[in-house]
Amino acid sequence: MINILEGAVFLDGLPVLEEDQDKFWFSIERDPSTGCWNWTSAKNGEGYGYIRRKIHCDFPFKFPAIMSHRLSYMLLYGDLSEDDLVLHRCDNPSCVNPEHLFKGTQVDNVQDCYNKGRNYHKLVDVDVDKIRKRVASGESIAQVRKDYNLSYNWTWKIIHNKAHKDRNITPSE
Questions:
Q1: pLDDT confidence of 172, banded at 50, 70, 90?
Q2: Are 84 and 130 members of one domain?
């Protein structure tokens, strides 16, 4: 059996195939006013682009995703570990311009967020309580997250006690 992945470049434990790179270059729209290279293909709920692909594995097929900004960084600057984050200087999650990207840690990401005034995860206890009560009473996560300027993922973590765990309340409180 021939190993078609021999000598392949890997990102987040997955091989980066020629078709991934072709998809990457096909999915970029350059904005001359900002310098951003905006991703025009699939995006997650927070606006980050990704490439979904079929990779043969033990169980018929996986559909892993490669985040487009991580792929962009890797194509220019080289390998990333799974623990490395790729942060945006431009604060545009759709941007894949490698000149707008830099490698960092989770600590760097939090500090970058704070420095840019995006410290929206600093909720006071009463906000956390209200978020949980509103969703528990049937209000949509989409509306609640919009009211507090939160990502879907962060709102979900608050509701399911993955964030602000010390605020365990019941809807009747």
A1: very low
A2: no
